[in-house]
């Protein structure tokens, strides 16, 4: 009995040690021992490692995952574009004065054409959903693994003719369905009825039809079409921004069609909803986007004061008991010059913002100190990224 207990204790200790290591180290260790590979690939270990990564993320620090490009121009005027994913680690001293940041470039061998762009469109548990050119991929930057999603049955190339149906990608969400215990991608498709002529006179008429949607599941590795229910509080002609925010099984988009509101999708029930933004007494304030704050959805609105901007930060509170959503204004900051919009709030009083030309700034709302960060320009980003060994296939 003592030997069995000792063996179990030894294995438990091994699991405990491995679960605290970074993903890159674990990927190397999988090649050392078969038993280690079995442990690291097991769902229980993946969950334990993710839990440790979330718990070990200090409240005084944050990690930004961003994409950036570097263009090489050759003597014959041809050019080639290199695409990078980078992680930026931000931390701050206890005295709230000294801000530190480190940049780590990630080497992920995406298969891309020279002129393709890379954009991050969703994030959950260490996995990001990205678009590389015309390809949709799931990628784990921590392990360097990625997989391309199958072609969509709804997104079809437009063929020239007298009449045609034009389909465009309008919104993408990615997250975890805890009911089905699988990851899902939801994609909103804009449909347009087009008519044109290639004769002596060319005309073009574009009629917007109700949007459709499709869901990809990692288990089935396929897409299925779903309806946007026109009888509910959703809008079949919604125009969400393409980048989504995921929280607790729901994807959220900021939408600005016939007013400003939030469009959401429950990954478990696979149902869309429309969420009203807070009413504003100040007519000049206008809402623009969403971000996460302390396990809640936050939104910001802004207005101009001369050549500067003021920002209001609002936090959404979801009361499950009474099934209603309310908003609380957290703070007002500004006026700022050359500041585009907020990215996130971290360490309660630190507001990370995007300035002109993709420059990042950090503003201390308690002291009023604004600092520019000397990091690569931010093109597309994920805030509060956590490394994991969650597989993408």
TrEMBL record:
<dbReference type="Pfam" id="PF07734">
    <property type="entry name" value="FBA_1"/>
</dbReference>
<protein>
    <recommendedName>
        <fullName>F-box associated beta-propeller type 1 domain-containing protein</fullName>
    </recommendedName>
</protein>
<dbReference type="InterPro" id="IPR036047">
    <property type="entry name" value="F-box-like_dom_sf"/>
</dbReference>
<feature type="domain" description="F-box associated beta-propeller type 1">
    <location>
        <begin position="91"/>
        <end position="333"/>
    </location>
</feature>
<dbReference type="InterPro" id="IPR006527">
    <property type="entry name" value="F-box-assoc_dom_typ1"/>
</dbReference>
<dbReference type="InterPro" id="IPR017451">
    <property type="entry name" value="F-box-assoc_interact_dom"/>
</dbReference>
<dbReference type="InterPro" id="IPR050796">
    <property type="entry name" value="SCF_F-box_component"/>
</dbReference>
């Amino acid at each position: 009995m003592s030997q069995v207990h000792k063996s179990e204790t030894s294995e438990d200790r091994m699991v405990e040690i491995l679960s605290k290591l970074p993903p890159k180290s674990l990927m190397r260790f999988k090649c050392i021992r078969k038993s280690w590979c079995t442990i690291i690939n097991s769902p229980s270990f993946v969950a334990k490692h993710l839990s440790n990564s979330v718990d070990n993320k200090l409240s005084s620090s944050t990690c930004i995952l961003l994409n950036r490009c570097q263009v090489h121009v050759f003597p014959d005027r041809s050019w080639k574009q290199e695409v990078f994913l980078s992680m930026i680690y931000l931390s701050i001293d206890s005295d709230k004065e000294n801000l530190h940041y480190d940049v780590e470039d990630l080497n992920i061998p995406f298969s891309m054409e020279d002129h393709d762009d890379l954009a991050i469109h969703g994030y959950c548990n260490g996995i990001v959903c990205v678009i590389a050119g015309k390809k949709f991929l799931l990628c784990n930057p921590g392990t360097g693994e990625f997989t391309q999603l199958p072609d969509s049955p709804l997104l079809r190339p437009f063929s020239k003719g007298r009449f045609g149906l034009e389909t465009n990608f309008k919104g993408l969400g990615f997250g975890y369905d805890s009911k089905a215990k699988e990851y899902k991608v939801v994609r909103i498709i804009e449909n347009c009825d087009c008519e044109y002529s290639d004769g002596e006179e060319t005309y073009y008429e574009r009629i917007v039809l109700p949007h459709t949607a499709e869901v990809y599941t990692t288990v089935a590795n396929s897409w299925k079409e779903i309806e946007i229910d026109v009888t509910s509080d959703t809008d079949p002609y919604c125009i969400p921004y393409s980048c989504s925010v995921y929280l607790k099984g729901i994807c959220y988009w900021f939408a600005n069609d016939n007013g400003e509101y939030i469009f959401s999708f429950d990954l478990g029930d696979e149902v869309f909803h429309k969420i009203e933004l807070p009413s504003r007494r100040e007519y000049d304030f206008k809402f623009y986007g969403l971000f996460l704050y302390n396990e809640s959805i936050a939104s910001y609105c802004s207005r101009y004061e001369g050549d500067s901007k003021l920002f209001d930060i609002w936090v959404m509170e979801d009361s499950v008991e009474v099934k209603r959503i309310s908003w609380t204004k957290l703070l007002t900051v500004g006026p700022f010059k050359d500041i585009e919009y907020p990215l996130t709030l971290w360490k309660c009083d630190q507001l990370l913002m995007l300035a002109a030309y993709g420059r990042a700034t950090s503003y201390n709302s308690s002291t009023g100190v604004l600092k520019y960060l000397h990091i690569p320009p931010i093109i597309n980003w994920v805030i509060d990224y956590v490394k994991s060994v969650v597989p993408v296939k």
